[in-house]
Design a protein that fits this description.
5-stranded mixed sheet; 7 helices; 4-stranded mixed sheet; alpha+beta; 31% helix
């Protein structure tokens, strides 16, 4: 429910001009005895009164809820649905205070709005500034409402473009054991074009290093510094490394630090990578657990 206390009253220049003209008309009517001036003054006052009442009722009686996505990526647009119920059918505006700060018109009912995910973090509630609709521009009061999200919105970092070589420390294409016929599902990067042209069928490289990687677990230790730009760059690089490793069929662990302490655990999808890194904060991450089939990659 929207609180009745206004942050800003939003009295327009039209309202002030109307009140001024009404006051002048009243003063002139007293001196000249003109009844039409009294009628004119009453009309101005009535217009202002209707505008004020409509704006206040439209804001006090409004109920606002939102339907937001659960995942987003820094710099990308996401769709947020704003639902307004009110006894007064009027056009209002909503400002996303704790997202990108943009203001959008909304009608009574449902309005879908494109909002940009501004920075990496987890948003548990949306703070909205709702400004009452216009009745001839007389009054536009505003109030703030905090809407708790049933599932926190995780804004993950934009992944840095990297290669599998960056993730594992050596070139998986370096050790070519042999070539063989293409099998559905083989990566396009493994196509051996010279053998393909010679044999007349699609041939791929069979890699010694790729065999060695089967069953390997990669642990990415993500240590974010206090410097904002360096921390965001590290989070973006960690996202890129984890995603390219997952795409290669490797097992991936993320070792990070969150508000409640160090955290470690496996991730199996891009969504999990984004959510884990959205919650990562500055500090020492969880310790690595090296093993025979485990490679530890420090990202800082």
């Amino acid at each position: 429910m929207i609180a009745a206390a206004w942050r800003r009253t939003g009295i327009s220049g039209f309202a002030l001009a109307g009140l001024g003209m009404a006051a002048i008309a009243m003063l002139l009517s007293r001196g000249a005895g003109s009844g039409w001036l009294v009628v004119l003054a009453a009309a101005f006052l009535g217009l202002v009164a209707v505008g004020v009442v409509t704006a206040v009722v439209g804001l006090v009686g409004a109920r606002v809820s939102v339907v937001a996505p659960t995942d987003a990526t820094v710099g990308e647009l996401m769709s947020v649905e704003v639902i307004v119920s009110s006894p007064v059918p009027q056009l209002r505006t909503v400002t996303f205070v704790n997202l990108d700060g943009t203001t959008h018109p909304v009608n009574r009912g449902r309005t879908t709005i494109a909002v940009r995910a501004d920075r990496r973090r987890v948003v548990a509630a949306l703070t909205l500034e709702v400004r009452s609709g216009i009745t001839l521009g007389v009054l536009r009061p505003a109030a703030r409402v905090v809407v708790d999200l049933p599932t926190p919105l995780a804004i993950g970092p934009r992944p840095t473009p990297v290669t599998l070589t960056d993730a594992i420390g050596f070139d998986v294409a370096a050790d070519v054991r042999s070539v063989r016929s293409y099998v559905a599902g083989d990566p396009a990067r493994l196509v051996h074009w010279r053998s393909t042209a010679r044999r007349g069928e699609l041939m791929v490289r069979e890699l010694e290093a790729a065999d060695q990687l089967q069953g390997t677990r990669l642990q990415f230790r993500v240590a974010l510094s206090a410097d904002h730009e360096a921390a965001e760059a590290a989070a973006s690089r960690a996202a890129g490394l984890a995603i390219v490793a997952l795409d290669a069929g490797l097992r991936v662990d993320l070792l990070t630090r969150e508000h409640d302490g160090p955290r470690s655990g496996a991730v199996t999808s891009r969504r999990e990578v984004g959510r884990r890194l959205a919650a990562a904060v500055t500090g020492e991450p969880a310790p690595a657990t090296p093993g025979e089939r485990t490679r530890v990659v420090d990202v800082s």
